[in-house]
Amino acid sequence: MAGFLVHAFLLQLIGIAILAAASDTRALLSLKNGVGDPSRSLESWNASTPSCQWQGVLCSLHGRVASLSLQNSELRGSFPIEFLTRCSGLRRLDLSQNQISGSISGASFGDGGCESLQWLDLSGNDLAGAIPPELLTASPASSCVGEQLQGIVPPALGNCTNLTIALLSYNNLHGAIPPDISRLQNLWWLSLSSNRLTGKIPPSLGELQTIVVLQLGNNSLEGDVPLELSKCKNLIMLDLSANQLTGTVPSRMELTSLIVLTLSYNNLTGGIPGELSSMQNLYKLDLAHNFLAGPIPESVGQLKNVQVLDLSENFLSGRIPDSIAGLTFLFNFNVSYNRLSGMIPQKGQLTTFQSSSFEGNPGLYGFPLSNIRPRDSPALSVEEHHSDDGYREELLAGVPCFIISFLVATTATILLTRASQVQKVLSLRR
Ligand SMILES: *[C@@H]1O[C@H](CO)[C@@H](O)[C@H](O)[C@H]1NC(C)=O
Ligand SMILES: *[C@@H]1O[C@H](CO)[C@@H](O)[C@H](O)[C@H]1NC(C)=O
Ligand SMILES: *[C@@H]1O[C@H](CO)[C@@H](O)[C@H](O)[C@H]1NC(C)=O
Ligand SMILES: *[C@@H]1O[C@H](CO)[C@@H](O)[C@H](O)[C@H]1NC(C)=O
Ligand SMILES: *[C@@H]1O[C@H](CO)[C@@H](O)[C@H](O)[C@H]1NC(C)=O
Ligand SMILES: *[C@@H]1O[C@H](CO)[C@@H](O)[C@H](O)[C@H]1NC(C)=O
After folding, report:
1. CA–CA separation, 317 vs 338, rounded Å?
2. 67 and which of 80, 92, 291, 426 could share a cystine (Cβ 3.0–4.6 Å)?
3. Can you give the pLDDT at residue 10?
4. What is the pLDDT of residues 395-413, one digit of tens each?
5. 322 CA distance to ligand 1 centroid (A)?
6. Residue 114 C-alpha to ligand 3 middle, in angstroms?
7. Atom of ligand 1 nearest to the CA of 46
8. Counting atoms of ligand 1 from 1, which one is nearest the CA of 43?
């Protein structure tokens, strides 16, 4: 009797699996029928072969469609969003670099969900509409949120709580970033760059405890850089560049894991906080094209791993701190178009850059700029005369130093290729 029950139970399980697999096949075929496929990328998708053998499809051991990769396949037409809910076993969907259009916020759906979805890459398409807050939440309250937003929100992506990677960059998404995004407690990579997003950066992003890469660049976001982001202790890359952000660079952003911090092309004011030096893993610090004023803090010289330091096109004044000369890995340095003055410290890494790294600072002089101190230089302090005395010595010492630092830099570049490959992958996948 017991044996019979177990048997029946197993048969039932197998039956369910077969039904689910058949429903996956139907969902895939409806996807095929719904999109334009001029280069016949989906030619192998026909009912005479099992769907697990179709181009771009990978199945789980249970025969469910687990992964669909159709990146760069010249697919066009409107986004088959219901596919996500019909293929409930889907863990990875990559439709990036196609010409898929339409709104991701305007469809209606049947049962099912996307609890399994972990990797969603829709970047480089032509998707429009608002980001469905329901992409982000499985809470029972979400239907109320939907009503408040007058039905523009589909329940489609409602249960995607296991999403770890959501790449929606290079589309036409507009509206604000839904604060509820913080409910995606498994998210580690979120890219919304190069859309038309407006409004403030929700402070609730600070509750994304698992987030490692956060890319919001090239939108029209305004308001402050929320200090709450400093709660994202796992952040390695934070890109908020090319927005309309105002306020200051938060001084208490103790994100010690951060490798890339890009706040360039915004309207940030105030000074460069010396506390940034606590980010000891920083590889790239880009604050260019803002309205930052005041001196470059001496403590920038404590960013021992920094390789790219771009402070150009701001209103920074005072001298270039000597400490920067000691940043052995620095290979891309730019302080052009500021109000810096005095002599460029003639030592270490600072002797390896071209004049375009320093140009546009009327008070700045010394190699690689002219050696002649500008007559109308605003800062002709006693201190300056002192450093001027040591100028010739430093210049002579600078020659072997240049060669040594070149060797060090070359070795470092080879050693750190891995780091820059990571960086390359990240910037390609923006
Ligand atoms: C289905 O695809 C296979 C190749 O994957 C092809 O040989 C076959 O002709 C196709 N059948 C139909 C009906 O298109
Ligand atoms: C979320 O999952 C629940 C239970 O699995 C289901 O009843 C509901 O319809 C799903 N919601 C969406 C929007 O798919
Ligand atoms: C998704 O997350 C829920 C908890 O939110 C968990 O119970 C479930 O097993 C996860 N599903 C998958 C397929 O990872
Ligand atoms: C910025 O976003 C727009 C679309 O909003 C896109 O056309 C442009 O290429 C993006 N710029 C960069 C530098 O990525
Ligand atoms: C940012 O600065 C630009 C250039 O000065 C200005 O046109 C724009 O209105 C400013 N935006 C905000 C939000 O302050
Ligand atoms: C430094 O920045 C300025 C302005 O942003 C740019 O014109 C120049 O090419 C840059 N120089 C280097 C070496 O990156």
Report:
1. 7
2. 92
3. 59
4. 223 323 333 333 334 334 4
5. 69
6. 10
7. 1
8. 2
For a ligand 1 pocket test, name from 28, 45, 46, 52 the mutation site with the most ligand atoms within 8 angstroms of its C-beta: 46
In a domain, 429, yes or no: no
Q: Residue 227 is encoded by which pair of tokens?
A: 């200090």
Rounded Cα–Cα distance for residues 342 and 134 (Å): 55
The per-residue pLDDT of the chain, averaged, comes to: 77
Query: Which H or E run includes 364?
Result: strand 363-365
* Residue at a domain's end among 231, 255, 276: 231
Assess contact for 272 and 293: CB atoms under 8 A.
Answer: no
pLDDT at 103 over 90: no
Shared domain check, 357 and 259: yes
pTM: 0.75
Q: Report whether residue 92 contacts ligand 3, using a CB cutoff of 6 Å.
A: no
For residue range 337-388, list pLDDT tens digits in order.
999 999 999 999 999 999 999 999 999 999 998 878 876 555 444 333 333 3
CATH at residue 74: 3.80.10.10
Whether residue 275 has pLDDT greater than 70? yes
The protein residue with its alpha carbon nearest to ligand 4, atom 8, reads: 194
Domain limits for position 67: 35-231
Same domain, 254 and 212: no
Say yes or no: CB of residue 85 within 6 Å of ligand 3.
no
**Per-residue exposure over 254-268, b if at least 16 CB sit within 10 Å of its own CB, e if not:** ebeebbbbbbbbbeb
Within-domain flag for 419: no
**Minimum-distance ligand to the CA of 291?**
5
Phi-psi region of 249 (alpha: psi -120 to 50; beta: other; left: phi over 0): beta
